[in-house]
Amino acid sequence: MTTKIVLTGGPCAGKTTALVRVIEHFNNLGFKVFCVPEVPTIYSLAGWNYLTPNRKLYFEGERAILTTQIALEDAFSRLAAVCQKPVLIVCDRGTLDISAYMAPEEWADITADAGVNAGMLRQRYDAVLHLVSAADGAEQYYTTATNSTRYEQADEEGLRIARELDKKVIRAWTGHPHLRVINNHDDFEQKMQRVIREISSVLGLPQPVTEERKYIVEVTGPLPDTIDSDILQTYLVSEPGTEVRLRRRSWANGKVVNVHNTKKRTAPGEQIETERQVENALYESLLQQADPYRQPISKLRQSFIWRGQHFELDTYRGPLQGLVILETKGIADVEDVNFPPFIRVIQDVTGNKAYYNYNLALRK
Question: pTM of the entire structure?
Fold first, then answer.
């Protein structure tokens, strides 16, 4: 069995440290871990500079990076195919990262030359973990000293550029069914532990049940630059102790992703969660298994980063209209939530089972 993930993020996000931790942790669990190196860094160290004013040189360099990235990943996949133990391939950035550094029309030309498109590239990976740049919410730790090829300096303008790149990279991967944004933390170790937990979940290893911070809120001002999507989720008939959810998520650009998710309790306080992307035909077929005691949940999700923390603002529709819930993931129990000034908290419902989507869906 081979699992391929992307470890990405904005400048100075902790990827280098995370890679070391991931390799050590999963090797110790019996996995063969391959790490695909960061291809843009290879080209930068060789003398190519993406800030070159020579547009032809820039374009040829980016095209070379994409084709090299695909070739390297495919080579490691062939190595994985002949291993006699489960394999984890960790890509230090992935193919879609390249699109964050160029204009959309240039990206369209490069992918057309390579015979691929964004949808095909997303499907190459089982999961994408985005580590938020220290430039957003952990500015005191932002440095360029750990990467000689980094062009974003540790000044106000450099921090602004780093934050913008961070958002562009998240947008590039938006639409992947297992995109996880890893917050900054007061304690960097918390960030590393979250990376390990997310990868363990993708590998189907039992994980402790954790409660994400969740609040009923009122929006009191304009939101920042958000990634908006419409979500329709239907709960399917399942055996006791198991929760099965079918989710369709769509974006304004016409992108639609269907995900089949299963949560199964394996022991008190422990569960295995699996998810897989399904095509439209299978999605429609699975709807026939809808739980008759639960109604579909429809909501608008607006995702954004505020002071290094990733938030999801869900505005419910239909029978639940008027309910607005703010959720942030990966915040340690000892940490404070950096509530944005345009959000007024009405009630903390963290751990309140009445506000689990599975229970909100119950027909009254």
Answer: 0.79
